[in-house]
Amino acid sequence: MGGVLVSVHVVAVLAVVLAAALVGRTAARAVRQPEVIGEILAGLLIVPAVAAVAGHGALAGLLPPDVLDVLKHIGKIGLVLFLVGVAHELRRGSGSLGSRTVGWVTLGSFVPALLSGLVFAAWVLWSDDEALRGGAPALSLVLMIAVALSVTAVPVLARILEDRDLMAGRNGKLSMAAAVFTDSTAWLLLVVALGTASGGWGGVVRSVVVLAIGVALALLGRVLLRGRTSNTLAARFPRLMSVVVAVVALALAIEMENWGLTAVFGAFIVGLSMPNGEDAHLWEGITRPVASLGRLFVPVFFVVAGMGLFSTPTAELPWVAAVLATVLAIAGKVGGSYLGARLGGESRRDSITIGVMMNTRGLTEIVVLQAGYSAGLLSAGLFLALVIMTLITTGLTGPLLSLIDLRARRTAPRPVLEPQGGTQ
């Protein structure tokens, strides 16, 4: 009977979380922000809001340990399934441009942002604030913060570009291509950071070996899935193949966690194994339902993250760290991408537009931060400061793009009108 009550309790909590996510998405659309901003805020704030209204005792009753454990699993499952689609989209966007400009924009968007992360990490270590510093090894913490300030969220950027009809334009293509390469490098550095935390340099070697095996599996899967038999099965039984993809992704995610890596790498292995080329449309139809199902339950992931943040008292919110992280993140991404685009031959307006686009962090950043938080690399206060930075930088993308367009219209030369009537 206890199991039945727990199940009913979980379903009730899920209904509340999904309703809150819907409200968050609606509110975000109303103010022309990406929907994920509303979902993140709704997920992170629902737990403190309930505690503030009903008290700590009521919160413990609403989210007892057995229910919270189930929610953690549901949130992780949703995240893994959603990232299968993200990884497939990374492959799809990576082959659109191969020009010299892409290289400059990628370098500009990654290297200065990485250096900004190193500056912020040095400040965290120098401040000697134990609540902010946490207990992570210095090298692991520095790498984790550097990665956090280097990320550009491909899914959120893609959604912003689609909403503004910029995906087919040159700036949109350059931004997406650079974001693909930037995030791929950031994920590799995240492996190193997690590896140094879990077992020193021996952990790094183990993580890199496991990652190499994962890449080999992705390449092997890509070859196998291009075969005629696989394409026939995908065309005839798309729902069954979607189930198979989801099960394999979850199994690999569990295995990656057993090897000391984050579960998201299992999702990336499966997503990267999906064929691109002429079979891309077929396999996109397979991965889309998987990603959509995961997207439905991603807000649960934010609620669990909010439970972790609830341990940080409101009076101790690290506002100085949040402000400094935000300033450095914007300077590194916007400034670096602008410089890279200019070196690549782009105009000033296009360069600043690309810089603003690359400053989008969104869900990808939250996933990276949660991985570092779960591994003990980030303290609750530092995690919260970087979450605030994520929300601000992502939220600025839309308004800044609108401001650039408005300024361009105001400074555009007006057409010369011919006098009516002509000359007699």
Automatic annotation (TrEMBL):
<feature type="transmembrane region" description="Helical">
    <location>
        <begin position="237"/>
        <end position="254"/>
    </location>
</feature>
<dbReference type="GO" id="GO:0015297">
    <property type="term" value="F:antiporter activity"/>
</dbReference>
<feature type="transmembrane region" description="Helical">
    <location>
        <begin position="138"/>
        <end position="162"/>
    </location>
</feature>
<feature type="transmembrane region" description="Helical">
    <location>
        <begin position="317"/>
        <end position="340"/>
    </location>
</feature>
<feature type="domain" description="Cation/H+ exchanger transmembrane">
    <location>
        <begin position="19"/>
        <end position="402"/>
    </location>
</feature>
<keyword id="KW-1133">Transmembrane helix</keyword>
<keyword id="KW-0812">Transmembrane</keyword>
<feature type="transmembrane region" description="Helical">
    <location>
        <begin position="6"/>
        <end position="24"/>
    </location>
</feature>
<feature type="transmembrane region" description="Helical">
    <location>
        <begin position="174"/>
        <end position="197"/>
    </location>
</feature>
<feature type="transmembrane region" description="Helical">
    <location>
        <begin position="379"/>
        <end position="404"/>
    </location>
</feature>
<feature type="transmembrane region" description="Helical">
    <location>
        <begin position="70"/>
        <end position="90"/>
    </location>
</feature>
<dbReference type="GO" id="GO:1902600">
    <property type="term" value="P:proton transmembrane transport"/>
</dbReference>
<dbReference type="InterPro" id="IPR038770">
    <property type="entry name" value="Na+/solute_symporter_sf"/>
</dbReference>
<feature type="transmembrane region" description="Helical">
    <location>
        <begin position="36"/>
        <end position="58"/>
    </location>
</feature>
<keyword id="KW-0813">Transport</keyword>
<feature type="transmembrane region" description="Helical">
    <location>
        <begin position="289"/>
        <end position="311"/>
    </location>
</feature>
<keyword id="KW-0472">Membrane</keyword>
<feature type="transmembrane region" description="Helical">
    <location>
        <begin position="203"/>
        <end position="225"/>
    </location>
</feature>
<protein>
    <submittedName>
        <fullName>Cation:proton antiporter</fullName>
    </submittedName>
</protein>
<dbReference type="GO" id="GO:0016020">
    <property type="term" value="C:membrane"/>
</dbReference>
<dbReference type="InterPro" id="IPR050794">
    <property type="entry name" value="CPA2_transporter"/>
</dbReference>
<keyword id="KW-0406">Ion transport</keyword>
<dbReference type="InterPro" id="IPR006153">
    <property type="entry name" value="Cation/H_exchanger_TM"/>
</dbReference>
<feature type="transmembrane region" description="Helical">
    <location>
        <begin position="102"/>
        <end position="126"/>
    </location>
</feature>
<dbReference type="Pfam" id="PF00999">
    <property type="entry name" value="Na_H_Exchanger"/>
</dbReference>
